[in-house]
From TrEMBL:
Keywords: ATP-binding, Kinase, Nucleotide-binding, Serine/threonine-protein kinase, Transferase. It comes from Streptomyces phyllanthi. InterPro entries: Anti-sigma-factor_SerPK, HATPase_C_sf, HATPase_dom. This is ATP-binding protein. Residues 47-161 form the Histidine kinase/HSP90-like ATPase domain. Gene3D superfamilies: Histidine kinase-like ATPase, C-terminal domain (3.30.565.10).
Length: 171
């Protein structure tokens, strides 16, 4: 009998207990399911402030445990927040998402899947240093932190794929 793919394989608090060095244990919420990956995780979630907080904390804990530098982790968390925020603005609260974060040979991959293959993210002409703009800078930040991000169709809609580059530490 195959396990249900949406059944949590590892309870979120247990995973964070074993990997978190500086982060407090967080409580899993409804609509948040975790699947370990070889060098990271995939989280199936309904977008909410609590679940975004949980996936950000999970990303930090997982990447710290894998030796990723703190500034790269901060960039990953910002990219992740921007992409999840874009999905929520496009589809509303509690949109079902899949967030993947994993270490690659060149940095950290951040992929966010949402259910609409037709609505593509749009870059706005808002300057990043604009003192007046309240919105419109998110994809510009993603451009800076994960240049070359792209969108592709996926089995559940579309996937925004990013790579936050990490410079290898030389001895």
């Amino acid at each position: 009998m195959r396990p249900n793919p949406l059944t949590p394989l590892t309870p979120l608090p247990m995973l964070l207990d074993t990997t978190a060095v500086t982060q407090p244990v967080i409580q899993a919420t409804l609509g948040f399911y975790l699947r370990p990956r070889p060098h990271g995780f995939a989280a199936y979630l309904c977008a909410s402030p609590e679940n975004l907080c949980a996936v950000r904390q999970l990303a930090r804990a997982e990447l710290l445990a894998r030796g990723v530098e703190a500034d790269v982790i901060d960039s990953v968390q910002l990219v992740l927040s921007e992409l999840v925020g874009n999905s929520v603005r496009a589809y509303g609260d509690y949109v079902p998402l899949v967030v993947e974060v994993y270490v690659t040979s060149h940095g950290v991959a951040v992929n966010v899947h949402d259910p609409d293959s037709d609505a593509l993210p749009r870059r706005r002409a808002t300057p990043l240093d604009s003192a007046e703009a309240e919105t419109g800078r998110g994809l510009g930040l993603v451009d800076l932190l994960a240049p070359g991000w792209h969108v592709r169709k996926s089995t559940i809609g579309k996937q925004v794929c990013c790579q936050v580059t990490a410079v290898p530490v030389s001895d």
